[in-house]
Amino acid sequence: MFKVCWVVCCAVLVVPCWAADCLQFKKNPGVYINTPDWSKAVVQPRAPMNLLHGNVVATFVDNYQINADVNPVNGGFCIGINSVNAVVGYSNFDVQIDIQHVPGTCTYNAILAHEEKHIKAYLSVMDDFRGDLQRALYTAADSVMPIFVETREQADVIIDIIHKKFQSHPELILIKQKINAAQEIRNKQIDKNEDGADLKSCLK
């Protein structure tokens, strides 16, 4: 009688039974963060710019490699996160300077020096948030439970699902918003604190 009830329960509640089987493979995920190698390029657009100011266009990247375990269980496999390799940070900075400033001149160098302070601001924000980023990535990875599949051929599809669950976690979304807000504040502070004395001295 007991055996019959068990079989009936599993037939009706297939997913919960398999999910319970997979819980034994839940791990504390490893999280490893690298920052991208960044580059700087100075460009001078043909369109007119403010002669007294340059611009920095920063490219932010957040790439995540999910390393998954595939463990056999009765009737299939359990797939769960083992670790996450993350590359997060700024990879490229385009410094825009008005074409009227000739490279190597006093005004060109003064504007470039100012824009390089903005680049340092972007990079310093990433340094300051490294600990918070580590915790957010761990929380996101730890929240994803192992998923049951019947065949190994389903593994790629499931890993994509795991990846989407990981990236859509509120902690991960929030930390990226905080990083963006912090760089905006820091960059505005640079402009507020500088009076453009170096550039003005070039125009005397």
Q: Can you tell me about this structure?
A:
The chain is α/β, with parallel strands linked by helices and 204 residues long. It has one domain. It has 7 helices and 5 strands. Strands 1, 2, 3, 4 and 5 form a 5-stranded mixed sheet that branches. A hairpin with a 2-residue loop joins strand 3 and strand 4 (76-96). Helix 1 packs across helix 2, helix 3 packs antiparallel against helix 6 and helix 4 (130-142) packs antiparallel against helix 6. The longest helix has 24 residues, at 170-193. The chain is elongated and about 80 Å long. The termini are far apart.
Domain unit count: 1
**E-strand count:** 5
Q: What is the alpha-carbon Rg in Å?
A: 26 Å
Largest sheet: 5 strands, mixed
Tell me, rounded to a whole number, the average pLDDT: 88
SS field, number of helical segments: 7
Given as residue ranges, the uncertain stretches (5+ residues, pLDDT < 50) are: 1-17
Q: Spell the H/E element sequence.
A: HHEEEEHHEHHH
Percent of sequence in beta strands: 25-35%
Shape: elongated
SSE class: alpha/beta
List the helices and strands and how they pair.
Layout (H helix, E strand, L loop, with lengths): L1 H11 L1 H10 L6 E5 L4 E5 L11 E19 L2 E21 L9 H23 L1 H13 L4 E3 L5 H13 L2 H24 L3 H6 L2
Parallel strand pairs: 1-4, 2-4
Antiparallel strand pairs: 3-4, 4-5
Helix pairs in contact: 1-2, 3-6, 4-6
